[in-house]
Amino acid sequence: MTGNHVLTTPEQIRERSRAIRSVHSDFVADSGSTRSGRRPTTQSRELSFTSKLDDEEILQRAQSAANSEKFSRLWNGDISGYDSHSEADMALCCLLAFWAGGDSSQVDRLFRQSGLVREKWDEVHYADGATYGEMTVERACTRVTDGYSS
Question: At 119, phi and psi to the nearest 5?
Fold first, then answer.
């Protein structure tokens, strides 16, 4: 933003949240939106894989898997090798989604125990009221197309 006024546009900033919500509802929101305006979570979608592992089993298996070094670094909060903390968050969520069979609640619960969790996780970052953590988990669970099966 330059702060330079564009001719023929209003000079004052005005509250227009209601109008923006109306336009969003009519023209932007997808048909899968819920009544509250929030998109369905990944838990509600049909997954081709499932995991029956509890949290402790997931951690044990992930820490002894072929990529255990990567998992352990992320789990302990080490973001080296990633351009940003957010990329490291996504990487850990994807690993957890694999072991949790795409169960977003389990991924979120586990991530909160990791060394990567920070205040940003619960901050609203999206117009629909979704938090950074909710969207990171949703994206990870959507990206992971395969999961652990015993």
Answer: -55, -35
